[in-house]
Specification:
Chain lengths: 253, 322, 353
């Protein structure tokens, strides 16, 4: 059974059909790429899956459970996490705190124990701190743990966003153009990082990306979207040869 | 053990100050000191929702009013039967209990008002949220003006004198400690994440509606307590003390002090109250000078006095100011 | 039926006054995204300016009462407030856009005047105060005192509150806190139009308000400046890139809005001659509600909103609970914000994720 199943999802904004009869099946351990020209609706698809938008038709299931139309924070708790096209870190917080925010919703402190700083609360805080630091270590950000997130260089900010998303212990991770603004060297490193994340954390990754090297190199399955509709689906090799895809891109990557 | 010692010491200091302050500084300055305390509670509580959580509310005076009138009305009503029932206790114990009962009612009433206002309003953002809270604050005030039981437009008199320096500053400590602990916990991280980026916070599993309403309710509860303390200190309440300009004053306190910062809110409350009081004898000049200084501060130091400065440098605490 | 029509006329004239003030709010919000809390007090200054002009020898001696007098009073007051509006924009709000030069001498000069008058109580002390303030201001500016941080939306709002407090209390100092009474400049006359009875004052209000709103609509829609205003309200940066002198357009917007508020002040004073320095607070707030109701940023919206609020108030007082009169506007405000925040004419702006 697919871990993330999008079935016949349609989304309209007024008269515009942004997404039409969309079907995506992501299996556990997949590195699934979503590509298409600008404005094709890819971020809209992400927003539908993560609960920012509610589909007008269709269902979205995570591990067999319906999530469409649910509150975004609810969906995040159930196991879908994401990064954003324009990095959305918590700018007034440190690197460590950014990750801690994502950690805490797994185990919630009671209001009174927070106010009275009870031993259980302090214990909670310690374990959150510990787990968050461990995660930062993996992403080689632990040495900058107490710096403000907004002061990090661009590449590190992207890595932090991914680390933060992983702190929610998701089953499916959605990455929205993680290679944007990166030079070729950084892109290749990112590609390896994504593959490593999939292996290390045993999760499925759905990736929207324009950088074809990254997509073709990392993903086993690719789906091509144009004007909100799927025009092709398959392995990298199949997609690269597909005339409809080439036409949609007017010349390819 | 250490905690217990600190609490005992604090009590001792407060009681000592209460007994001696009036003699040292005079009745007039004593009043100002108490007023400063009440404003600190208002500022620190408003800071939780405006500064820390980033939800711009200009209706604080409404919750202040709800608390003040609830407390005053309740205490005035139950005072006689209560004192009869507890005749065996010394008067100071009776006063204490009455005040605490009144304040509890004030907090609950103000908190409920916060819930009623907050749930529909917090869907809105930015200016719209500000305006709707302003509207609610004014509606509350007009409703109070029309309630005969609390004196309507004539004001409410005969409120027993139950609060003083000791009580006000005891609650200043309670307010600051509570909100401080809240901010430096996972709740605080959630609040700040909402302020920084609501969409991202939601995506990371923070139920933004729940936390916004929570911050709003906690904030209004403390405003209610401030109201109760105010009522039993001035022994007289008039709806004109709760005009929207009062909400503006509290906002000015937290912005001048440094939005988001708890020490900033305290400093802002002190600075604004003292500045307003220092010029009181000069009539309309008072506010003219205050206004000019305010405009200059906003032009030349918009981040406020504490804005951008970190008072404590603890290892892993959120930069509470933006 | 007669009473209803009568109330309708009352409501429309009340509403026209609100509309004129609301227009200033909405235009400034359109170009600056700022709720100019000081606007209601500009309306008050307009009423007082009119008062002093109406009481001056020119009007009292030469013109007496009548249309000529009314025009002089109206235009004079509008001119005064246009200048006031531009001063406020230049020295209170523009500094946050990076033009803080002269702000220190300006404000410190005023502070000096206030302190001088406060301590000394005579013109000499006031003069010394102004001089001292300006000198200190220039010195500090030369020494490099300049805003280091960019101002936030919130600090701008607080600046507006500061200006409002300044005008209200400054007004109390300058005009005296006791109410004054606007002299009669339109000779009283009553006309019967079928079932309706209308007096000259109300007729004046309706006609002038209509003319002004028509004039504004013309300016905004058919002149180059108006087009520039609309461009700035859509996108300030893009307008700048198109070569529009945004500072000048913003100043013009303030001037226009303030002039309309002044007109509103005069018209209201025709109906209710009692004026005092705090008279702008409630009407200002209600006009603001009207602007929001109509859709903040929308000029036709402000007109519609003003009329609705005016009517609602008159109807409520006429048929219902008058003690809750002040709450009517706020209840409408809360309802519109909870149901359709963008107002009657407004379009919602969605955030791009």
């Amino acid at each position: 059974m697919a871990i993330l199943e999008v079935s016949h999802v349609t989304k309209r904004f007024g008269g515009l059909v942004a997404v039409k009869d969309l079907n995506i099946a992501v299996e556990k351990g997949d590195l699934y790429g979503l590509i298409g020209p600008n404005g094709a609706g890819k971020t809209t698809i992400f927003n539908l899956i993560t609960g920012v938008y509610k589909p007008d038709e269709g269902t979205i299931k995570l591990d067999g459970v319906d999530v469409q139309g649910r509150k975004a924070s609810r969906i995040a708790k159930q196991g879908i996490s994401r990064t954003f096209q324009n990095i959305r870190l918590f700018s007034s917080m440190t690197v460590l705190e950014n990750v801690k925010v994502a950690r805490h919703m797994r185990k919630e402190q009671g209001l009174f124990s927070a106010v009275f700083t009870s031993p259980s609360m302090r214990h909670e805080e310690e374990s959150i701190e510990h787990e968050s630091l461990e995660l930062l270590k993996i992403f080689k950000l632990d040495d900058r743990a107490h710096e403000l997130a907004r002061n990090l260089p661009y590449g590190s900010q992207r890595r932090l966003e991914i680390a933060r998303a992983l702190a929610t212990k998701p089953k499916v991770l959605l990455l929205d153009e993680p290679a944007a603004g990166m030079n070729p060297q950084e892109s290749i490193e990112l590609m390896h990082l994504i593959q490593w994340v999939r292996d290390e954390f045993q999760i499925a990754i759905l990736l929207v990306e324009h950088n074809m090297k990254v997509v073709m190199g990392a993903c086993q399955k690719i789906q091509v979207i144009d004007y909100g509709e799927t025009i092709a689906q398959g392995s990298p090799a199949e997609i690269q040869g597909n005339p409809k895809v080439i036409e949609a891109y007017l010349g390819g990557a | 053990m250490k905690k217990a010692l600190i609490i005992v010491a604090a009590f001792a200091v407060l009681i000592g100050l209460q007994m001696t302050m009036r003699d040292f500084v005079g009745a007039y300055n004593y009043q100002i000191v108490v007023l400063v305390g009440i404003n600190i509670i208002l500022a620190v509580s408003l800071n939780l929702i405006n500064g820390v959580t980033g939800q711009f509310s200009i209706g604080h005076a409404g919750f202040y009013a709800v608390g003040a009138y609830t407390c005053a009305l309740l205490v005035s009503t139950i005072q006689e039967p209560f004192r009869n029932a507890t005749g065996s206790l010394p008067e100071i114990a009776q006063d204490t209990l009455l005040l605490l009962i009144g304040l509890a009612a004030a907090a609950i009433a103000a908190g409920l008002a916060g819930l009623v206002v907050g749930i529909p309003s917090l869907r809105l953002k930015g200016d719209y949220l500000a305006i709707v809270t302003l509207g609610f604050g004014e509606i509350i005030r007009v409703v109070i003006v029309n309630v005969e039981a609390v004196g309507g437009s004539r004001g409410m008199t005969g409120i027993p004198a139950l609060s003083n320096f000791f009580w006000v500053y005891l609650f200043v400590i309670v307010t600051v400690a509570t909100i401080h602990n809240l901010v430096y916990s996972s709740y605080g991280r959630a609040f700040i994440s909402i302020r920084d980026d609501e969409t991202a916070a939601e995506a990371m599993g923070v139920d933004t509606t729940r936390y916004k309403v929570l911050a709003f309710v906690v904030s209004s509860m403390f405003a209610g307590i401030a109201g109760g303390l105010f009522a039993h200190f001035t022994m007289y309440l008039h709806p004109n003390s709760f005009l929207f300009i009062t909400s503006f004053y509290v906002i000015i306190m937290i912005v001048v002090g440094g939005l988001g910062s708890i020490p900033g809110a305290i400093i802002g409350a002190v600075a604004v109250t003292v500045l307003l009081e220092a010029f009181r004898e000069f009539g309309a000049f008072r506010l003219v000078n205050f206004a000019i200084i305010l405009v200059l501060i906003m032009i030349f130091r918009p981040q406020g006095l504490m804005g951008g400065l970190k008072v404590f440098k603890p290892r892993s605490r959120a930069a509470v100011t933006k | 039926m007669e009473t209803f029509l009568q109330q309708l006329i009352n409501g429309i004239s009340q509403g026209s006054a609100y509309a004129l003030i609301a227009l200033g709010y909405t235009m400034v919000y359109g170009v600056l995204r700022l709720i100019n809390f000081a606007h209601g007090d500009v309306y008050m200054v307009g009423a007082f300016a009119g008062f002093y002009i109406a009481n001056s020898d020119i009007v009292q001696g030469t013109l007496g009462t009548g249309v000529a007098a009314a025009i002089v009073v109206m235009l004079g007051s509008m001119a005064v407030c246009a200048v006031l509006g531009m001063l406020i924009e230049r020295f209170a709000y523009r500094p946050s856009r990076g033009a803080s030069r002269f702000a220190l001498p300006f404000w410190l000069g005023i502070l000096g005047a206030s302190l001088g008058q406060m301590i000394g109580g005579n013109p000499v002390a006031l003069g010394i105060g102004v001089l001292a303030g300006v000198v200190v201001g220039i010195a500090l500016e030369r020494a490099g005192l300049r805003p280091v941080t960019k101002s936030s939306h919130l600090s701008l709002l607080i600046t507006a509150i500061g200006v409002s407090l300044f005008l209200e209390n400054g007004g109390q100092l300058a005009f005296g806190a006791d109410p004054k009474f606007f002299p009669e400049i339109i000779p009283t006359a009553n006309w019967q139009l079928g079932p309706l009875r209308i007096d000259s004052q109300r007729a004046t209000v309706l006609i002038v308000a209509l003319l002004l709103m028509a004039g504004l609509t013309f300016i905004v829609n058919y002149t180059k400046t108006g087009k520039a205003m609309r461009a700035v309200s859509f996108n300030l940066d893009a307008a700048k890139l198109m070569g529009i002198n945004t500072d000048r357009i913003i100043a013009f917007t303030f001037a226009l809005g303030s002039a309309l508020a002044a007109a509103g002040g005069i018209l209201v004073s025709l109906l209710y001659p009692r004026i005092d320095p705090l008279m702008g607070i409630m009407p200002g707030l209600k006009a603001f509600v009207a602007a929001v109701l109509g859709g903040i940023g929308s000029i036709p919206g402000a007109m519609i909103g003003g009329l609705i609020i005016g009517m609602a108030e008159v109807m409520a007082v006429g048929y219902g609970q008058s003690t809750y009169r002040d709450a009517i506007a706020f209840v409408i405000l809360v309802l519109i914000l909870l149901l359709k925040p963008s107002g009657i004419m407004g379009k919602g702006i969605t955030e791009k994720v």
